[in-house]
Sequence to fold (194 residues):
Amino acid sequence: ARPGARAGVLPRLPENLGPIAQANVDAGAELRAMTKPKSDLPPWKILPPPPAEELERYYKEAEAKFGVPWVYLASVHLVETRMGRIRGTSTAGAQGPMQFLPSTWKAYGMGGDIYDPHDAIFGAANYLKANGGAAGRMDNALFRYNNSNRYVRAVTLYAKQIEADPRTYLAYHQWQVYYITPWGDLWLEEGYGS
Fold:
């Protein structure tokens, strides 16, 4: 939100944290650049996500079945709905914790429930595999998931952080939902929309 603050903050961090903070700031900037501030509040509900251990188990089961690295599944989930905190349909009509268009879900959801975290993670792994994710072409697979190079860079930066230190996943699991408005960022606390 305030790119000018980077120069004053990042150099003050311990040397080992600087690159990590830079990666997270860069990923956030990529996503922010994709988002047009909106005056109206979203018709979402913000609820607690499923437990981190449960989601990690689903990601790893999906990796074992489809060959898509679990860190990318977790990162897509983080970007799409803050790991399931956001409950609601996107402006494009995408639904569920991994944000599928119904037509895409019909093709890749394997008959599951678009709103079920386990089914949605498996559907995402199936889709990413079909687009090269299991063959090491994650850039292509992510671009097909959301046709934006900014999206690809952001998800990849988050995935690389989890890959470097899996404890980062636990931190990402705690990230909250912020909504960008013309007047500044608004924290949508758990319970919003209830």
Q: What stands out?
A: The mean pLDDT is 96. The radius of gyration is 16 Å. The CA atoms of residues 90 and 99 lie 8 Å apart.
